[in-house]
Amino acid sequence: MTVEQKRILATSIPGPISIQMQERRTKVISAGVGTLLPVFIDTAHGAILRDVDGNQFIDLGTGIGVVTIGHTNQRVVEAVQNQVAKLTHTLFTVAPYEPYVRVAELITAHTPGSFAKKAAFFNSGAEAVENAVKIARKATGRTEIAVFDHAYHGRTNLTMSMNFKMHPYGTGFGPLAGSVHHAPMSYPYRDEPGMTGEEAAARAITYLEKRVGATQLAAVFIEPIQGEGGFIVPAPGFLKTLDSWCKANGIVMVADEVQSGIARTGKWFASDWEEGFEPDLVTVAKGIAGGLPLSGVVGRAEIMDAAHAGGLGGTFGGSPTAVAAGVAVLEQLEEGGWMERSQEIGELLTTRLSAMQANNPIIGDVRGRGAMIAIELVEAGTKKPNSQAVDALVRHCHQNGVLILNAGTYNNVIRFLPPLAISDELLNEALDVLEEGLAKL
Ligand code: PLZ
Known about the structure:
Blueprint: H1 16-28, E1 41-45, E2 48-51, E3 56-59, H2 62-65, H3 74-86, H4 98-108, E4 117-122, H5 125-140, E5 144-148, H6 157-162, E6 180-183, H7 197-211, E7 217-222, H8 238-248, E8 252-256, E9 281-284, E10 295-300, H9 301-304, H10 320-335, H11 338-359, E11 363-369, E12 372-377, H12 387-399, E13 402-403, E14 405-407, E15 413-416, H13 424-440
Parallel strand pairs: 3-13, 5-6, 5-7, 7-8, 8-9
Antiparallel strand pairs: 1-2, 2-3, 4-10, 9-10, 11-12, 12-15, 14-15
Helix pairs in contact: 3-10, 4-10, 7-8, 11-13, 12-13
Ligand PLZ is lined by residues 64, 124-126, 129, 152-155, 223, 227-228, 256, 258-259, 285.
């Protein structure tokens, strides 16, 4: 089913049918499960979401960076339809099926590093991160884990402990897992002006050496571009310096590329932007399977093999339909054109957002790479976080048929994660709506 690639405002937002559904929802769905935009989506294609009232939204969020290849990408749909009619489940650890192996062949060929690699598949990003922790601990015989300020790694008990922000992810849900240490991140917009990546890495390393001890650390986890934290791009040299320190100290370097990976930033992985940065393990999820739940840990064969047989698994991890979708996504990425498109989208977004910044002192920073760009909003003339402006802009865009997402430790970031299938025309139209909203503030 295709949907015309057009923004349509058929009713007020939310429309009457969505309002009715929202009433039903409130009766039976836990209050803990929130909603950013209370319209019920019926169909989607490319860059457009169509709701039950006939409104059509330009999607600049892709379900938080999931349908990178576009909604209902034809080859993903066909792969899933074929697979679902053939085989839906055996459990790979009970009796295997070929697409699980194929998706591993494809992904190991494209994660950073020229060394021999292996993979294991799971359902969610958090599950991939947890498994990377297990593997790193088994491989090193050590227990401690380092993460960074502003990081996000998931909602399970262990990953909740790895997040920077307590609220809303952890409030009241403790006790949290131990052996997790939070080190200072490189945040160029808010660090001392001129601080280099190497200096920011030295600050983190000193902290970890003193507070934890290099010999105690099993792994350092970092998002090469932080997602929920507000698309913070560390200063050049930060990742590489940390990586060299990890390698010198027998610590497993893990890049959490759940949000930044799979062509999102204009390369296969955001790690690829920093020359010489070769994480030992990479966690992948979101964009890898075009909307089907699939995640994985990919990395150095000898580290991946440290886990004993039966030590990794899960009933649904790498299920036949999910891996079939993964193969369809990765084969299309291999065919080419997508990285270039992601970079073009990044240029269009950066050019337009920088022009808006020139006229609007509340846009403190425009940052990111490829189709992963954000603006950080502040009170004019200061760096004081301006979350009210973000709320107002998000509301304006939603009311006008453009789905945008907020982010950031201080809730003062708007992030853009458009599908790579979006046209320049639709992207410009969405940015026009944003610009109108800015003018109204
Ligand atoms: N690591 C870097 O971005 C998921 C969270 C959505 P799961 N980010 C979106 C929400 O509100 O729950 C994420 C991430 C990074 C890990 C995860 C976790 O991935 O698939 O949500 O478990």
